[in-house]
Queue: 4 jobs
Job 1
Amino acid sequence: MPTISSEQDALALVKTYLAAMQMRDCEAASDCLSEGAVLTFPGGVRRDGASAIAAGSASRYRRNDKTIEAWEVSHQDQAWVVYCRGTLFGEWPDGRPFSGIRFIDRFEVGAEGITRQDVWNDTGEVRPR
């Protein structure tokens, strides 16, 4: 992984990570994470790496994807902060389709990769019970 030294580097790394996660390429996604990255999902659920994220998603969705509406990048303290927001679409485990579920992903990117990911979305409000 190249050293992250600019807004463009940080944004490119996050895009690479999200694309790898979408393809369930956990090895490529892991290469984007710094050692000890903190990965927090809705409900305060922490995941320990890309493989744990994929395993956690497998019980929640048959498939899912994102329509990205906007990217925002800023520099705070010693990290680049990248926000990605939009909507989710896909299929629930029972095969029923869903779409239009709002999400926000927030990433902190240091010189050695993604150090933190926080995910918020409305799936809990619309997921079948």
Job 2
Amino acid sequence: MTERLIGARRAALGALGAILALSLSTPAQAAGEGTDAAQLAAVPDGNITVEVVAANGSGCAPGTATVVANADKTGFRIRYRDFVAQAGGGVDATDRRKNCQAGVVVTAPAGWTFAIAEANYRGRARLSSGATGLQRTSYYWQGSATTSRTEETFGGPYYGYWNTDDVAPVLIYVPCEEQRVLNINTELRVDAGTSTSTSSMSMTSSDGDVDTLFNFSWVRC
């Protein structure tokens, strides 16, 4: 089953937004009954590790996607080094859509479980008048039949940074004491439309790599 545009998406067009605040919601059944606000707001003691176990797609050639856990245990970030879609001006048709599916494993301390409460995507766009850009992401847990999908469209003319937030994209808690792969499939698509010049949309900036940020919602088991 696919849930389209789950939660809320806030598109902030222009300068990059501030660091994400942790967005919390009522815990799912896996977290059990009687979980209070203090439990939800807490961050676990002990080590937390996050790793990409697989990354495939035209937007993330081998070795171009890495993951880093936040030092404060509030989430993690994926960094892409070559994730650009472009169209128009004689660009090859295969460059109009780029995607990357990353499989991420989070190892949580004993007695804790988590969900993804918020995700932030950002990069640069050069969209000529008449062109459009699309950023779409699908999320699903290993072994789950449910896929959550969010998307945002940008219209030209647009030149500069773009920034989107997904609120509660995967607010489904991992069963306690289980370790599952979170699959994150991110897509960039550019349509030249009526424009004859080259338009592009990327997960990178001219200053270097741009992180995609994911924030945890922690609960005690």
Job 3
Amino acid sequence: MTPAKRVFDIVAALALSLLLLPLVLVLSALILLRDGRPIFYVSERMKDPVTPFNLIKFRTMTTDTQDRGVSGGDKAHRITRTGAMMRAKRLDEIPQLWNILRGDISFVGPRPPLRRYVDLRPDLYAEVLKSRPGVTGLATLAFHRREEELLATCATADETENVYVRRCVPTKARLDLIYARNRSLCYDVQLMVATVFRRVPLRKRRA
């Protein structure tokens, strides 16, 4: 990560934290009143192939001590009413501003993977995680909807795991590596704006 990108992350994260503080308080109260504690969901993710960190989100599901892997159709029954509302607008990711301030992630980059997938594909993630993970990115914009469609049809945890590893991980990695070849502060801003308006930006790809 360049110094300019880090400064941009800190300034933007501080500004958004202040701006979104009333919304954070409202969402926290809704979760507490409707669904109880905990308000936040903390998940171990990987900053690079060997360094884990705790990613923070608003809790959108009922808790399950046996939970593992990514979310698919097998977990759909656990999504709360408040959680569904937050997921539709990606409001559950607002607490990740704290992760940005800590330097765990950036605004833009590959989504931070679970350790299990890094262990399964160390060769792939050794390249992908040369870029600091992010809240959004090219893979998020271009493939997130398709990923949700693929995983929504999965009825068991094993099926979700197989579909994610075989069909989602390689596609997202290709997009993450395209981002890595084209990354710049201007491109990051373009991707952030595109995330707000949910449109994939067009950009000439370098070989």
Job 4
Amino acid sequence: MITAFLPCRKGSQRIPDKNIKPFAGIEGGLLKIKLDQLLQCKRINRIVLSSNDERILEYAESLNESNIVIDRRPDYLGSSSTTTDSLINYVPSLIHEGHILWTHVTSPFMLDKDYDALIDAYLNGLDNGYDSLMTVLKLQGFIWNKQGPMSYQRDKLKWPMTQNIEPLYEVDSGAFISSVENYIKYQDRIGSKPVLFEQEKIKAVDIDWPEDFTFAEYLWKIKL
């Protein structure tokens, strides 16, 4: 049993009504796009939509889709101060068995076929010693922190060829897959040994800031 968990809290400090405002001319916005994608996935058995926003809940109810389970999330778990850790600990009270694919409406370029591929990679990983999966963006370049380079050693070569730099991986928040048992055991949406599933840059686009929203709309219009 594969259950998609789709959290959509009320409000957004950086992008007001981010989840449901029109996106690239599409009414229902990012929420409509993501629900359409998840409903088309062959490997997903049901979708749990968790929100404390009545507009989001009403939209989901209007679809009248038997595969969508609506969770009216308590307000204390839907505020700007709610931590992801708190929401993670809440999820097993909604989903009691099988495997959870946690995803977000803010990853509009992850299509149904991408989710099916993730699930296949996750199940294959279970057979090969992994216990979970998360999507990542490979970073293979000159990456620094305030103290200096993190991805290469300037005392050996000041400007190495980027293809020779050991890659780092940024968690792009596209999707996380793990079992209900792992949620309870680790109090986390991944286990102790996740598959790092590399995504193309466009798949890894995560809408978090106003300029992300504008950029994603432009990409949507020219790409899809």
